[in-house]
Design brief:
Chloramphenicol Acetyltransferase, about 35% helix, alpha+beta, about 425 residues, 11 helices, 2 domains
């Protein structure tokens, strides 16, 4: 007898097709396991928030159970048939909240131990064939002091997803009478995706992306293994946003586009390539039809940039902005010709109206990752930006991440102080 009862479609089947982006992450995970080991923590993505407020465990458990059972992507079970994959949806998941107790003589000791506990749990390989690919838990540091962690496997969502789910948890917890948005489910989205790609409009979009990615050479990520390799490196940095806002205003664009340009330039220099593609995972937030689902958000918009030494940085910023706008009109099929080794997640967690007055601090949780993808996460604050970098320490070493952040800041400074600066000027600054 099966542990769970599964939803049936109109034909009475319990197995559904796997989405294109889902399949990409499944294969990336399996490739990582083969290269780096089964216990590597693989493609888990997590978000940790320190809560220094009273927490009613039963109330939180009820809220999380409600969210899981409203969202079919949080109840998925992977099914394998030889070389093909499908998925099942648990009809109702009986969620129970796990609360771990941190140890230590001082609060700092307990915080350190709490992060270690969270890291251990986030790095545990998820049994995606038998259990849902997400987890929510608390680590108690002290009186009215917890780290709240929610994690998922990348095949059901991404970093931007964690923000959507986290925000909903706080909204429901604050007001249990909050109604669920009546929107489509993730299984609806998967079916619509396949129907769209088979339509005339979908075929035209696929032609666009085929042309957009034509001739692109995947970046040599072996060049990212600078210095000592490790199990995993996640770093968080805070930078003043004044210069970024100033550049955006002067060029009639947004801080997001300034950051995207600096990211492209940094990768170009470090990996010795004048042609780079970055997946922008914030792009699909525009699709309000599936706002309550999490899986759809894992369909990034591919953004390609070709540069030459004589290009002015300000001109590249303008062309990058225009290309992003053009690409957005073809968003629904962007992930089909997947060339994304590097991603940008902008505003990963945005506190909503119900959470802005709470004392919430994002906690960096060390992770081990074996997927050969790198993520730059940007959390927007009023006066500063928090930059998070995340990637396998076997591939994207600590030295690589620190070098990328240094280049990022150099490009921002150069754009701010010399609007006529070129790529060549940025290269000279790097070598200085």
């Amino acid at each position: 007898m099966e542990k769970y009862k599964f939803l049936q479609n109109e034909a009475g089947d319990i197995e559904y097709p796997v989405g294109i982006r889902q399949l990409a992450f499944i294969r990336a995970d399996l490739n990582g396991r083969e290269k780096y080991g089964q216990d590597s923590g693989v493609a888990n993505v997590g978000s940790g928030i320190r809560l220094r407020i009273p927490i009613d465990y039963k109330r939180l458990e009820k809220v999380i159970g409600r969210i899981i059972n409203e969202n079919d992507a949080l109840r998925l079970i992977l099914v394998q048939h030889g070389d093909t994959y499908k998925q099942k949806v648990i009809e109702h998941y009986p969620y129970k909240l796990d609360v771990y107790e941190a140890e230590g003589k001082t609060k700092d000791d307990r915080l350190k131990n709490a992060v270690e506990i969270a890291s251990r749990e986030v790095n545990t390989v998820i049994d995606w064939f038998n259990e849902p690919s997400c987890r929510f838990f608390l680590v108690k540091i002290g009186w009215n002091d917890h780290i709240f962690v929610w994690m998922a496997h990348h095949w059901i969502g991404d970093g931007s997803t964690t923000g959507l789910i986290m925000d909903k948890i706080f909204r429901y917890y604050t007001d249990p009478n909050t109604k669920c948005e009546e929107t489509g489910t993730y299984m609806d989205f998967i079916q619509e995706e396949y129907d769209f790609l088979a339509s005339e409009q979908g075929k035209k979009q696929l032609e666009y992306w085929k042309k957009e990615t034509d001739g692109y050479q995947m970046l040599d990520i072996t060049k990212a293994a600078i210095g000592e390799r490790g199990a995993g490196y996640d770093h968080t940095f805070k930078i003043d946003r004044t210069a970024i806002d100033r550049i955006a205003a002067a060029n009639n664009t947004t801080p997001f586009n300034v950051i995207l340009l600096a990211y492209h330039i940094g990768l170009s220099f470090l990996l010795d390539s004048k042609d780079t593609i970055i997946g922008v995972t914030s792009a699909n937030r525009t699709d309000k039809r599936y706002f309550r689902t999490m899986g759809y958000i894992a369909h990034p918009l591919q953004h390609r940039m070709k540069i030459s030494d004589k290009d002015m940085l300000s001109d590249l910023l303008t062309s990058s902005k225009n290309k992003f706008s053009e690409n957005m009109t073809y968003l629904r099929s962007s992930h089909y010709y997947d060339r994304m080794q590097f991603c940008l997640t902008y505003q990963n967690f945005v506190a909503g109206s119900k959470t802005k007055n709470m004392k919430l601090d994002k906690v960096s949780i060390p992770t081990k990752r074996s997927v050969e993808q790198f993520f730059l996460l940007v959390f927007e604050g009023e006066k500063e930006l928090t930059l998070g970098t995340s990637g396998s320490g076997q591939v994207f070493t600590e030295a690589f991440q620190l070098s990328l952040l240094k280049l990022f800041e150099d490009v921002i400074t150069l754009l701010d102080t010399d609007p006529s600066a070129s790529v060549e000027d940025a290269a000279k600054k790097q070598k200085a």
